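Here's what a typical entry looks like (Terpene cyclase/mutase family member):
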Amino acid sequence: MVRRKINNAAADDAEPLLKKGATRKRFSNAGDLDHDAKRQRPELKERTDYSRWRMRDDHGRHTWHYLEDDEQAKEWPQTYADKYYLGLPLDLPQLPKPKEPLDAVRNGLEFFMKLQLPSGHWGCEYGGPMFLLPCVVLAWYVTKTPIPWYYATEIKNYLFARAHPEDGGWGLHIEGETSVFGTVLNYTVLRLVGVDADHPKMVKARATLHQLGGATHAPHWAKWWLAVLGVANWDIVNPVPPELWLLPDCVPFAPWRWWIHIRQVFLPMSYLWSRRWQAEETDVLRSLRKELFVEDWDKINWAAHRNTIHPRDNYHPKTWLLNLINWFLVNVWKPIFRTQALADKAETWAMRLIEMENENTDHADLATVSGPMNLVCLYARDGPDSYAVRRHRERSHEFLWVKNEGLLANGTNGVQCWDTAFAIQAVMDAGLTEDSRYRAMLLKALEFLDEQQIRENVKDQGKCYRQTRKGGWAFSNKDQGYVVSDCVSEALKAVIILQKTPGFPTLIDDQRIFDAIDTLLTYQNPSGSCSSYEPPRAGPWMEMLNAAEVFGRIMVEYEYPECTTAVVTALSLFHKHWPRYRGKEIERFIVRAVAWIKTAQRPHGGWYGSWGICFTYATMFALESLSSTGETYANSFHAKRGCEFLLSKQRADGGWSEHYKACETGEYVEHPTGSQVVMTAWALIGLMKANYPDKEPIKRGIRLLMKRQQPNGEWLQEAIEGVFNKSCMISYPNYKFIFPMKALGMFARRYPDERVA
Ligand code: LAN
């Protein structure tokens, strides 16, 4: 086993700059590293022993553990789920070859059942974005949080595995082309976990970075992190003034009106920007000043580079208005009007809002960007040992995931409630909820949703601008506690379906179901549509203030076909069982929502999806919701056009395949690798929900799903499935089980005598 040299800190300050990726001298030695930095930079090894990793599911909280002790490892054996996540052989027997689609569902369930976690849900990697791991590692580094050698080793492995095969850089997401954003941040991570600057992969990555212009060409968020590290001067960071939070709520651009993710990221960013806070200098940080820039560090005109950005990173160029505002903030507001008293007041209020977020989530926080940033803020204000800092450190582990390629950070603290809700629905659609083989699995899944239902609104809801949430479900777990319109809907459908199935207990009583409905009914927008976490609090014009550069449609909530359609199907199902509870309101809600869904249909017949790729995903949801109100191919112009759209995209092998570029361009784009099981399943589900009358094209798709199933019942990972903010892709690995099983099961129920194999 090759041991990588570590603690290879910087060349001394007198050493001239590294030029264009070349390594001028072997970086050596950490003799003068301070104690904390040494503690933080553990010994890197080639790889860890994968038989020692375990994933603990503590009531839906995921943490990974590396058992160095043999005894411990024996006492806590690896489960199938651990092995599956880690890419280790499961040695499962071959199952009888399916003769018909229902056999394929049974084989799929046989495999999928083994992956169910003790609390009743399914876990998975939730990677894709390449800026999340840097958030965690950089926050750890600047807060002097020790990084164990086994984390460092597998972080190195993951980033090396995900480096672009040709240029050695990293993109915004795993399938994206190399960008300054991805390369600057991930290169920095590798250095901070102990990789030598003269490692051949680092030399290559650095050369690429320099070719792209170096770190002065990075987008806003990367510049902010580099300023926090002290690797860049704060003058290169466009203003993030916390005093925006002091504006009266009636101001049309006040931050409480922004999309929840952007305002939660803006909070910690603004606090540290205001304080121009910087981490303690270490040798490796000093060295990064030389490695990341093309220019001579001491001579860089930082302020002049505030708006410098490589075109590849500039997905959403800043508007003239934002440039004007930034100019005003830098040249007039800050030097002339921004008194210390005002800055102090704004910082105090920003920190108070962060504290409320901590209290409401027990320091788990909304997601993997704001969480680590909040840790840095608390550390900057309270020092290393406050409860909040310690708790944050603890909870930051819940963002991590280990897989065959190494250790990565997930987009949220998991996909628990979301995947579980869909899994239950897939079994229902296959007509197998009453089959005794699946009872224990389904009961556990129901128990999970029971445990994860959010029972109270947050404390001081109005003060921290939170949406009503009582009775709802979050995407991940109730600790995170942010309900989303479609997460509530999918979970509610799953609960109703199971609790109405003979033999299943009523764990969630009517009142709790009504609570969920009360929350869902707060989600409708004036147009009839629904958004994600909250109804929009300002119009799309706010995008004029989008400073992130790398993402589109990020500033406010939008109207989403997927969210609207999920709410429609949930309300329709509820209304069938409880017609009298807020019956008239629900009927009105559905009518208005369906009318909006029709207006959102594109001229080609498909719907644009914002959270899955892309038209195939949203068209499935749209057709399902239309059918829940009785509109199908036979009687609805819209359902018919939706079906025709899907059919026009079917490939010769019977499958469907859509490339993520569709999300960026707004036009359907075929995936170059051919048909994908997940998209094939989505399209088939859409067609079957719409009662498309000709079974032949459907049968061809079903055949493809069956052909791709492995002898042990699983399906293999293909291209990435999910997206957010138009430009960033994210993985939903459980989709390859859930949706094919659902499509196959639906086919089996509709055409029970059909043999496909
Ligand atoms: C998610 C994941 C789930 C997703 C669905 C429920 C699928 C969707 O229908 C509604 C929106 C939601 C909840 C969603 C919003 C944005 C998230 C949280 C993510 C895509 C996962 C990661 C992403 C988050 C914004 C990542 C952090 C990046 C920033 C730009 C702050």
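The two ends are 47 Å apart (CA to CA).

More examples are in the samples folder.
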